[in-house]
From TrEMBL, chain A:
Keywords: Carboxypeptidase, Cell membrane, Disulfide bond, Glycoprotein, GPI-anchor, Hydrolase, Lipoprotein, Membrane, Metal-binding, Metalloprotease, Protease, Signal, Zinc. The gene is Cpo. The active site is at residue 360. It is a lipid-anchor; GPI-anchor. The keyword Zinc applies. It comes from the Eukaryota. InterPro entries: CARBOXYPEPT_ZN_1 (IPR057246), M14A-like_propep (IPR036990), M14A_act_pep (IPR003146), Peptidase_M14 (IPR000834). GO terms for cellular component: apical plasma membrane; extracellular space; side of membrane. This is Carboxypeptidase O. The lineage of its organism: Eukaryota, Metazoa, Chordata, Craniata, Vertebrata. PROSITE patterns: CARBOXYPEPT_ZN_1 (PS00132), PEPTIDASE_M14 (PS52035). Its cofactor is Zn(2+). It comes from Falcunculus frontatus. It is found in: Apical cell membrane.
From TrEMBL, chain B:
It comes from Falcunculus frontatus. This is LXN protein. One of its GO terms (molecular function) is metalloendopeptidase inhibitor activity. Keywords: Protease inhibitor, Repeat. One of its GO terms (cellular component) is extracellular space. The lineage of its organism: Eukaryota, Metazoa, Chordata, Craniata, Vertebrata.
Length: 384, 177
């Protein structure tokens, strides 16, 4: 819909406009009634979208000049709405999954989720961050006496990629909400346990809320406290320090003082090592780029199971695109993105976990790291 | 590959109007990256096949609104941390986007990929001539290094003239600690 601004010049024009308004039943914003339309006076009319061309043609025909005051009424309405606090389908005990949440709220959410779903969910301590915060993962597991394989997913290794923790939370919610009604999910959980770490780089995430929205690394100090942060995804023990890194703390890809120098890295690595024979698939969620990346980043030499890796990834990408048409590219990091070493995905594969993927979620650069909250739902739905 | 000169790319592009999704225009482009030289921008030739949407009314309105402000416009963090841009700052954001395109072009090589991450700061500077002037600090994200680089950019604009970057400089020092 558009709103047009017209100043009729002659009585004939006034008459024509009055006729147009009443015949097409146009919405007069100013004045209120057609009989109050006068020559030399402001006229504002809202024209429904399907009639816009017809009205403009009629004005042109009668040599009545006009200006488009509002080119898209709906857009204006949407933008002037206060941010919705609740969107019915997303509420799970009041938690709004279509908004970004600070760490405090995510901690509370984890506690609540375990409470509300105690037959399936247990919260476990993984380790401590540099700034001494507790790292927890959620285990979603259907009680059974047979041992199960594990799918591990971590989010938020890079602080500024807010859509990533948002996705982990969404994922947990979806699984739990639909467990009873969706046979696919039940079958899934019959044979597999899901381990989800909603925020890996907690210190960095908090820092991106409080100080610097575009912060990436963790918050451990170097050079006598004059420089902060290691890129946790360059800190794992896979060809550490060889390519795509910096040894300078001030770089955003600073790989730390050595492999697993960071407490967050050690916490995750230790755990994964201890469970390595049971972990079937490792997923690490990032943004942005719309990519599904397979090992390796440090070399273009393909991993031993590259065919299987690619096939599974391609099917995932196709399913994702099927939802809203969002296109994802699939391939090895070194080939389609850039060279890097010390990534969690590569390390996990080198210790024997067959399926290891990095997901780079929406978008491709228009919003980049600052993905508007109104894209949380479609991004999560398609990734699901 | 052009010996002793550089690498030339032939592109077919489809442009989509951000403000009128679904409206697209095809373009062709030739981009030449010069061999070795890091300080010369790539040569670009662009042909637009079709028409771009007219924006005269909206342009004029924005121009009048800014000219009639009593105090110079100042704003920060566009979009905010959650991705929101207040309605009245949308044109400022769009202008920044256009300006970032120029800066990105001037600083691109075959091994960089830049995107505008955020407008850190913008300040209007009143001028004695008809142009509007905005002094921006833009945050550019470079994909390969993963760095976020602050860049000072001065943009001049007038409804009848295309936007121009009259001055730009990579900001010294770091984006916050």
């Amino acid at each position: 819909d558009q709103v047009l601004h017209i100043v009729p010049e002659t009585f004939q024009q006034v008459q024509h406009l009055q006729l147009l308004c009443s015949t097409l039943m146009l919405d007069l914003w100013k004045p209120l009634l057609p009989e109050n339309i006068g020559a030399g006076e402001d006229l504002h009319i809202r024209v429904p979208a399907p009639l816009v061309q017809e009205v403009k043609d009629s004005l042109d025909q009668h040599m009545i000049s006009y200006r488009v005051l509002i080119p898209d009424v709906q857009k204006l309405v949407d933008q002037s709405m206060p941010r919705e606090r609740s969107s019915h389908r997303q509420i799970s005990g009041g938690y709004v999954y279509t908004e970004y949440h600070p760490m405090e709220e995510i901690y509370q959410w984890m506690t609540q989720i375990q409470k509300d779903n105690s037959e399936l969910v247990t919260q476990h301590f993984l380790g401590k961050t540099f700034e001494n915060r507790a790292m927890y993962y959620l285990q979603i597991s259907q009680p059974s006496n047979k041992p199960k394989k594990i799918i591990w997913m971590d989010c938020g290794i890079h602080a500024r990629e807010w859509i990533s923790p948002a996705f982990c939370q969404w994922f947990v919610k979806e699984i739990l909400q639909n467990y009873k009604s969706d046979p696919k999910i039940r079958r899934f959980l019959q044979n597999l346990d899901l381990y989800v770490l909603p925020v890996l780089n907690i210190d960095g995430y908090i820092y991106s809320w409080e100080e610097d929205r575009l912060w990436r690394k963790n918050r451990s100090p170097y050079e006598n406290g004059t420089c902060y942060g290691t890129d946790l995804n360059r800190n794992f023990n896979s060809s550490w320090g060889s390519v795509g890194v910096s040894f300078n703390c001030s770089s955003d890809v600073f790989c730390g003082s050595g492999p697993e120098s960071e407490p967050e890295t050690r916490a995750v690595a230790q755990f994964i090592k201890s469970k390595r024979s049971d972990i079937l698939c490792y997923l690490t969620i990032h943004s942005y780029g719309q990519l599904i990346l397979t090992p390796y980043g440090s070399t273009t030499r393909p991993p031993s199971n590259s065919e299987e890796l690619m096939q599974v990834a391609k099917e995932a990408a196709a399913a994702l695109t099927g939802k809203y048409g969002t296109s994802y590219r699939v391939g090895s990091t070194a080939l389609i993105l850039y060279n890097n070493s010390g990534s969690s995905r590569d390390w996990v594969h080198t210790i024997g976990i067959p399926l290891s993927y990095t997901f780079e979620l929406r978008d491709t650069g228009a919003h980049g790291f600052i993905l508007p909250a109104n894209q949380i739902q479609p991004t999560c739905e398609e990734t699901m | 590959d052009i010996e002793d000169v550089g690498h030339k790319y032939y592109l077919e592009l489809e442009l989509e109007d951000v403000l009128d999704k679904g409206r697209t225009v095809n373009c062709t482009a030739e981009v030449l990256y010069h061999l070795g030289s890091k300080s010369t921008a790539p040569d670009v030739q662009l042909t637009v096949q079709g028409e771009l949407r007219g924006t005269e009314e909206a342009d004029q309105e924005f121009y009048n609104r800014i000219r009639s402000l009593e105090k110079e416009l100042v704003a920060e963090n566009i979009p905010d941390s959650h991705g929101n841009v207040p309605l009245e700052l949308e044109p400022i954001h769009l202008l920044a986007w256009a300006a970032s395109g120029y800066v990105i072009w001037q600083n691109s090589t075959e091994n960089t990929e830049f995107h505008l991450a955020q407008v850190k700061h913008v300040k209007q500077v009143k001028r004695s001539d008809e142009d509007l002037q905005f002094d921006y600090v833009l945050l550019l994200h470079e994909m390969v290094s993963q760095e976020v680089i602050p860049w000072e950019v001065t943009v001049l604009w007038h409804p009848q003239h295309p936007a121009r970057v009259s001055w730009d400089r990579r900001q010294l020092g770091h984006t916050l600690g």
